[in-house]
Amino acid sequence: SALRGIVLLTDSVPDEQRDALRRLVNRHIEEAVTHEWGSMAKRRLTMETMPTHLIEALKVTLALQAAEETQKMVQREIINDVHRALEARRQRIVVSQTSVSAVKWAAILLQGLCALVAIAMVHCDNRLTCAIALAIFAIGIAVSVLLIAAYSRPFTGEISVGPQLLQQVIATEPPDGSP
After folding, report:
1. Rounded to whole angstroms, how far apart are CA atoms 13 and 41?
2. How far apart are CA 135 and CA 131, in angstroms?
3. What is the pLDDT along the chain (179 residues), one digit of tens a residue?
4. What is the Cα–Cα distance from 72 to 104, expressed in whole angstroms?
5. What predicted TM-score, i.e. pTM, was given to this entire model?
6. CB 25 within 8 Å of CB 53
7. Judging by beta carbons within 10 Å of its beta carbon (0-12, 13-18, 19+), is residue 68 exposed, middle or buried?
8. How many angstroms separate the CA atoms of 66 and 48, rounded?
9. Which are the contacts of 7, defined by CB distance < 8 A and separation ≥ 6?
């Protein structure tokens, strides 16, 4: 939404800066989709990699010579949107670097095992009830483990976050660059 905000606000800046900002936003999105997303999936993208197109967009915005109060307000909003886009990128990188540690896996599996043993002990006098209760709870544990495993790598697999929303920002812009 921050990148879309930049594109929408550029209608209020001079043509040269508008075209430059839109071009930089598009390049940032293309870079994120073609390079960063794959690197995040492999956990290789770090904060050391600078978003050069967003930084350049910030420089272009700061260089604007706002004559009216409206233009000054637009300039501030574009700067805020660039900062929000940088923060969103930082959050994506942080999320891509996180994982479920072995300690967490061991704790959840031990907790599940303890619960299964407790259920077995409570229902030991009735084998059918014990088997049903153990099966239901074991299925619950299996589903929980599956969900944790599926969401532990948010940029890969069937249940993954894709760059489609970023690509929609490019799609909303007219092909000739006019507003």
Report:
1. 37
2. 6
3. 899 998 888 888 888 888 999 999 999 999 988 888 888 888 888 888 889 899 999 999 988 887 788 888 999 999 999 999 999 999 988 888 888 888 988 998 999 999 999 888 888 888 898 889 899 999 999 998 888 887 777 777 667 777 887 888 875 555 455 54
4. 50
5. 0.70
6. yes
7. exposed
8. 33
9. 21, 22, 25, 169, 172, 173
- Written as one letter, the residue type at 31 is E
For residue 2, what are its two tokens?
A: 């921050």
Structure tokens, 37: 């997303």
Q: Do 155 and 96 form a contact (C-beta atoms < 8 A)?
A: yes
Q: 165 and 7 in contact (C-beta within 8 Å)?
A: no
